[in-house]
Every structure is written in structure tokens, then in C-alpha cells.
Design goal:
Length: 191
């Protein structure tokens, strides 16, 4: 019983650190000129690799763009990608086979898988002192060519990464009691 309480206490302590990292994470769009070392990039990719996925398919793949010339080219076709990131991680997914294993919901599941991998990148970036931002507004056809994305793979989103430049403002968040309910939607608010 005592061993269990030691494990529980370690988890409680770790959970505080994780929760603080989640609370402090922001979408960073302005970056300093400092390059992100490859060992930190590897940690971002490992965090993405360990994301959950539907039926544990792990259909994702990642293209890391660090060449400044190529970053500028990607930015030309990614309207929402602001600032000058040190790198861009293109989060991709195999195209779903609608026959197996999730049927018609496969496409939705593959989008969800990519989003969960991206969230792991965002949280790890914050933990490493980096800034990051997810981007969905881009010219898919152009970026498929630029990044050499094959036909059996879908580019789902881009994550810009770098060291934050300047102060990052915390936006207002909705109150929990306005979005969380007990048992049924709208019946009893969580307080």
C-alpha cells in the first residue's frame, strides 16, 4: 500500500507540472532569430509519435522544414503562417482506407489523430521553452509539391516553431461553468 502512495504522489507532483505547462502554452506567431537545436526538434517529434490514435493506427508522418529558403517558400503558400519560425513541422497522415478498420468515420479519425500529434508538439514546445502555432490555412496543392508529399498521404496541418520573440499575451478564456455540464448538455452546469 505504501508503494502505491509513493507512485500516486509522484504522479500528483508530475500532474502539477503538466497542468502548468498546459496553462502557460500560447500560440506564438513572433519568433527570435535563434535556431532550434536538433535535439529539441527530436523531442518534439518523439512527443508527436507518442500521441494517441484511433485503433492505434499511428497513421501520421512529419516533414521538418529548417532550411530558411524553404521556410520562406512554404510561407508564400501558407497565408496564416506569421513571423519567421526556425522550423515548420508539416503534420501528415496516410489517406484512410474507408473499408478498414473505422469505416466511413476513418477520415474524421485521421484528422483527429493529426490534431492529437500536433497538440503533443505544442505542449512539448512549451515545456522546452519554445513557441509554436498550428496553421490550417495553406495552399494544399502547392505545399504537396514543395514538400514532396506523395499521393497516398494527406498534409493535415503545419506547426511553426521557434523561440518566442517578445511577450506573449494570454487571451481571455471562457469560464468552465459556461461550457461543462453534468450528465446532459445544458442541464446542470459544472461549478
Amino acid at each position: 500500500m505504501k508503494a502505491l502512495s509513493v507512485v500516486q504522489e509522484k504522479r500528483r507532483s508530475s500532474s502539477k507540472i503538466v497542468f502548468q505547462t498546459i496553462l502557460s502554452r500560447r500560440s506564438v506567431r513572433s519568433f527570435s532569430d535563434h535556431r532550434v537545436p536538433s535535439n529539441l526538434v527530436l523531442q518534439l517529434l518523439e512527443a508527436a509519435r507518442w500521441a494517441p490514435s484511433g485503433s492505434n493506427l499511428q497513421p501520421w508522418s512529419f516533414v521538418v522544414v529548417e532550411n530558411p529558403r524553404l521556410i520562406r517558400l512554404v510561407r508564400m503558400f501558407a497565408q496564416g503562417l506569421a513571423g519567421n519560425p526556425s522550423l515548420i513541422i508539416a503534420v501528415c497522415s496516410e489517406k484512410p482506407d474507408l473499408r478498414y478498420p473505422l469505416g466511413p468515420r476513418s477520415a474524421l479519425c485521421y484528422n483527429m489523430n493529426a490534431a492529437m500529434a500536433a497538440e503533443n508538439i505544442l505542449i512539448m514546445a512549451e515545456a522546452l521553452g519554445l513557441g509554436a502555432c498550428v496553421h490550417l490555412s495553406f495552399n494544399l496543392m502547392a505545399l504537396n509539391v514543395i514538400l514532396g508529399i506523395p499521393d497516398h498521404v494527406d498534409l493535415k496541418l503545419l506547426v511553426s516553431v521557434g523561440y518566442p520573440k517578445g511577450k506573449v499575451v494570454t487571451p481571455p478564456k471562457r469560464r468552465l461553468k459556461d461550457m461543462a455540464f453534468k450528465e446532459q448538455y445544458g442541464v446542470r452546469k459544472w461549478s
